Every structure is written in structure tokens, then in C-alpha cells.
Amino acid sequence: MRIGKGYDVHRLVEGRDLILGGVKVPYEKGLLGHSDSDVLLHAICDALLGAAGLGDIGEHFPDSDPQYKGISSLLLLAHCVVLVGLKGYEVVNIDATLLAEAPKISPYKAAMRENIAEVLCLDSGDVNIKATTTEGLGPVGRGEGMAALCVALLKETDEA
């Protein structure tokens, strides 16, 4: 078994869609970045890569590479699953936390879990998503951005 943790943060800006867990969430702002800037999926990618000893998301999908401009982070996550598999591991479960003052994500959590579980070849019950505010403290608390944390558990594949 291997455990990895992931963290990501993005600034909120006007003129971009807010994509979280592969779901377009209605909101007046979106996250700024090179890809679709899905902070939740980026934290999951980093947790998976870390657990497998494969570095971080920036090493595999640099923002200097035009092929990743505007790309869906679900595709980045799928590539991370392939990399983890090539290293001889499979995903057991994911536990992720979104830090944001707004919007409320409760209505979208089930769809996020389904998206993530499908890419990771898991049951949706093996993907946990939580959300919390920072009680108005710091950049996230002021509504300037969002952050996400994730812990991932991997196990050796039967073929390993």
C-alpha cells in the first residue's frame, strides 16, 4: 500500500467557467490557470502521482506546454491513472476536501464523485469529497481563490 497527498490552489477570476470535479458549477467566477483549472482534480492528480513516487502534476503537464491549454482535467486525471498503473499500482480510494467560501457544492458532489470514480475505475463510494470554508480567513476566505487537499491510497496490482 502507498499513500499520497495532494494540494492545489487557483485564483478566482471573472470570464471563466468554474469546473470542479469535472462538473461545471454555476458561479460568477471561474478558476484561473492553463488547463480548465479544476483545483479538485489537480489535488487528486498530485496525490496519485505522489503515492506512486512519480513527482507532481506540474512535471507531467507543464503550463508551458500548449497541448494542455484549456484541457479538461478529467483527461489529466486519466493520464495519471495510466502512469500509476504502469508503475504497478491501482487506486483503492480517494478522500478530498475543497476549500471555498462559495458556491455551495453539495448539489454537485454526487456528479463529481461519479466523474472521478469512472476515471479511477472505482465505485463512487470509494471517492469521498468534502467541502469547507476558511471562515473568512486568508485569500480563500476573502473569495480570491479556491484550494483543494487530497489523500489517495494505492495498492500493488495483482500483476505486479
Summarize the structure.
Pathway: Isoprenoid biosynthesis; isopentenyl diphosphate biosynthesis via DXP pathway; isopentenyl diphosphate from 1-deoxy-D-xylulose 5-phosphate: step 4/6. The chain has five helices and seven strands; from the N terminus they run ββββαααβαβαβ. It is of the alpha+beta class and 160 residues long.
Tell me what the structure shows.
- The chain contains 5 helices and 7 strands, in the order ββββαααβαβαβ.
- It has 160 residues and is α+β, with helices and mostly antiparallel strands.
- It has a single domain (2-156), classed as 60s Ribosomal Protein L30, Chain: A (2-Layer Sandwich), CATH 3.30.1330.50.
- Strand 2 (18-20) and strand 3 (23-25) form a beta hairpin.
- Helix 1 (39-51) runs parallel beside helix 3 and helix 3 (73-86) runs parallel beside helix 4.
- 39% of the residues are buried.
Instruction: Supply the helix-strand structural class.
Output: alpha+beta
Across the major sheet, the strand order is 4-1-7-5-6
Uncertain regions spanning at least 5 consecutive residues: none
- The CATH homologous superfamily name equals 2-C-methyl-D-erythritol 2,4-cyclodiphosphate synthase
Report the strand count. 7
**At CATH's second level, what is the architecture?**
2-Layer Sandwich
